Amino acid sequence: ELKVEQNPLFLSMQEGKNYTIYCNYSTTSDRLYWYRQDPGKSLESLFVLLSNGAVKQEGRLMASLDTKARLSTLHITAAVHDLSATYFCAVAAGTYKYIFGTGTRLKVLA
Amino acid sequence: DTEVTQTPKHLVMGMTNKKSLKCEQHMGHRAMYWYKQKAKKPPELMFVYSYEKLSINESVPSRFSPECPNSSLLNLHLHALQPEDSALYLCASSQDGRGPVTEAFFGQGTRLTVV
After folding, report:
1. CB count, 10 Å around CB of B54?
2. Is the Cβ pair A45, B31 closer than 8 Å?
3. What was the pLDDT predicted at B99?
4. I need a surface site. Which of A82, B65, B91, B113 has the fewest CB within 10 A?
């Protein structure tokens, strides 16, 4: 059974700093997604990673995928308060099944 | 239009009530999903419909009954729920599992409270 773990679970960081969130998964998969969720809100799609070595960037966020290591990273550059949210990775475990990671609650302090 | 619309946004129901959650998308997606999310936890898959047929049921109790009347609509019928069923229920859709990109788009969710 596919298991997806993220670390850290909680992250409090100062504005302007850099940090990386890690997503590890236990069995082979060919698709990985990153989502953002604000408190009490829905999930917003951030990145879709479909191949080994894939790298996507949007603003201060950059995601990468290493399928051999079963690892994805979400790197935050020069954090701003607006990035405060919970970030989930989700790994495809079959045609229609997505298994979500444990989530990382990010708080950016001014 | 990349929107998945869920109604109602909030629902309070008694344990003997029957209610339904509704979800609609007009993106031409042929896969639709129900997820349950408890506070501070990741979403958990409940059901998947593909081309209006139930593809996945993650051993969900029968007090939850999904229905897909057509390719744009997805319902979740609720009956005799328990207080522990209180959660955020999220609907999602994706193009099709067979395509190269099967990114799921999520609705705003229904916040369900069972009293």
Report:
1. 12
2. no
3. 59
4. A82
